[in-house]
Amino acid sequence: WKSVHTGGDLRVQQRKFITDQNVAVTVLDLANTSTAEITRTLTLGSQRVSTAVGSTELTGSVNARYDLTTLTPRLSGDGFTVSTPTSLTRAVTLAPGQSVTLKAQMGVMTRELPGSDAEYQRYRDLGAETAFVEQYAQGGLGGERSRRLTDDGLAESGLGLAPLRAPIYCVTEN
After folding, report:
1. Spatial distance between the Cα atoms of 36 and 97, rounded to a whole number of angstroms
2. What is the pLDDT along the chain (174 residues), one digit of tens a residue?
3. Counting Cβ atoms within 10 Å, is residue 101 exposed (0-12), middle (13-18) or buried (19+)?
4. What is the dihedral of CA 18, 158, 47, 128, to 10 degrees?
5. I need a surface site. Which of 58, 60, 140, 167 has the fewest CB within 10 A?
6. Is the dihedral of CA 42, 43, 44, 50 positive or negative?
7. Contact 9, 36 (CB under 8 A)
8. Cα-based torsion angle of the residue sequence 72, 78, 79, 84 in order, rounded to the nearest 10 degrees
9. pTM, 2 dp
10. What is the 3-state secondary structure (H, E, C) of the chain?
């Protein structure tokens, strides 16, 4: 999924995909469209995470509907650091005409998907463009189960799980 948003002096192109092992990835291309330097603070957050893992990742635990399983979300982003128990932040300064590409990822681990943790770590460690190209080369979106990435979070159909209903990121001005 791809969309472009422009607000004032910032243009954001976002590309989103979700892997077969429940890793939602957002690649952001941020561009300064003004003639002056700009600084923006990006906030990456979820109501489903509440514990810092070091200074760059958040995790949590959520019981699925009817206690079918336990979901363990992990949230991180390129250059982001823990700012609250439920969010990570990163300041981005762009010169006139300059752009930067970065990514954010949220993996949702379950015992039913034993490869989900390794896949989260793999995508977390890949560069933004490499992650996008690799997923595309592996057949793009979709997989054995039907998944979708919505504007307000990760939803999985087929297992009767309720949507996580958590924003993946937002851009705020300094």
Report:
1. 9
2. 789 999 889 999 999 999 889 999 999 999 999 999 999 999 999 989 999 999 999 999 999 999 999 999 999 999 999 999 999 999 999 999 999 999 999 999 999 999 999 999 999 999 998 888 888 767 654 443 333 333 333 333 333 333 333 444 444 444
3. middle
4. 0
5. 140
6. positive
7. yes
8. -30
9. 0.79
10. CEEEEEECCEEEEEEEEECCCCEEEEEEEEEECCCCCEEEEEEEECCCCCEEECCCEEECCEECHHHCCEEEEEEEECCCEEEECCEEEEEEEECCCCEEEEEEEEEEEECCECCHHHHHHHHHHCCHHHHHHHHHHCCCCCCCCCEEEECCEEEECCCCCCCCCCCCCEEEEC
| Token code pair at residue 157 | 């159909």
**153 token code pair:** 């979070």
**Residue carrying the six token digits 């070091």:** 54
